[in-house]
Specification:
mainly alpha; two-stranded parallel ribbon; 9 helices
Length: about 270
């Protein structure tokens, strides 16, 4: 295992570019191209983590789990949980069963008179409940993003962003936007198109997964974290099912160790 290999350091981007654009409106900003691009690219903000580095420590690896054979394609249970996007379409019977399940759920919630049907008034109540739930989720998201902005840019601690603080946030958002373009603008047109934005999201998803490997929370991913992760896997807790096949086996352990060592995936 390598002694020190920095995990990708762009995790700061997800906090900056993903929150600045949406939150400047809370503090009187007009918004602009940088904000619109950043907000459309980035996922919801997460608390900014400490930098993670690789550090080697002695540890005893559970060989029983490491040596557990990988399931060959087509083996019993190997295809129990196909990767997202590759799952077979539902049959007509499955679709009908799903529709009936949803219908029963709606009736149980909104059939006020118990006649087994939803009247226009009951349907409107269902629509209103959905609107309220969506608005509640939007409010919660906005508040999380607002707090993230204040924590980062409210220099004087007054709970608001003044003109100077807003300008700092705006300048940093533009800087991060340019860094994202430099890193992910594959066709060199100065913008991030659909495929490039998908690559950005996947990059940050992998960053979050790497941070989750720091099991003991000491800011480094080392052999002790590998041991803890493998022990949790051996206890049949779902932690790192990297290929999403519904099982933990040698493939997943190899991928876990590869990521911690910072190696390129095997072709």
């Amino acid at each position: 295992m390598k002694a020190t290999t920095p995990i990708l350091s762009v995790t700061l981007l997800v906090v900056i570019a993903g929150t600045v654009a949406s939150q400047l409106d809370f503090f009187g900003s007009k918004g602009g191209d940088a904000e619109e691009t950043s907000a459309s690219i980035m996922p919801a903000p997460e608390p900014e983590p400490e930098p993670i580095v690789i550090r080697q420590r002695p540890a005893q690896i559970n060989r029983e789990v490491v040596d557990r054979p990988a399931r060959e394609p087509g083996a019993e249970g190997a295809d129990r949980r196909p990767p997202r996007g590759e799952r077979p379409e539902m049959t007509d019977e499955e679709r009908e069963a799903r529709r009936e399940q949803m219908r029963q759920e709606m009736l149980s919630r909104f059939d006020a008179d118990g006649d087994g049907e939803l009247s226009e008034a009951e349907l409107e109540a269902a629509r209103e409940a959905r609107r309220e739930r969506m608005e509640e989720m939007r409010q919660q998201q906005r508040e999380r993003m607002r707090q993230a902005m204040l924590e980062r840019y409210d220099a004087n601690g007054d709970g608001e962003l003044d003109d100077t603080e807003r300008e700092t946030a705006r300048a940093e958002a533009e800087q991060r936007r340019q860094e994202l373009i430099e890193q992910f603008d594959a066709n060199g047109d100065g913008e991030l198109d659909g495929d490039e934005r998908t690559a950005v999201r996947e990059h940050f998803r992998q960053e979050r997964e790497n941070r989750r490997m720091d099991v003991n929370g000491d800011g480094v991913v080392d052999d002790l974290d590998v041991q803890a992760a493998i022990n949790r896997v051996s206890g049949e807790q779902r932690l790192h099912d990297f290929n999403r096949d519904g099982f933990h086996d040698a493939n997943d352990v190899s991928e876990l160790i590869r990521r911690i060592q910072g190696q390129e995936p095997q072709k």
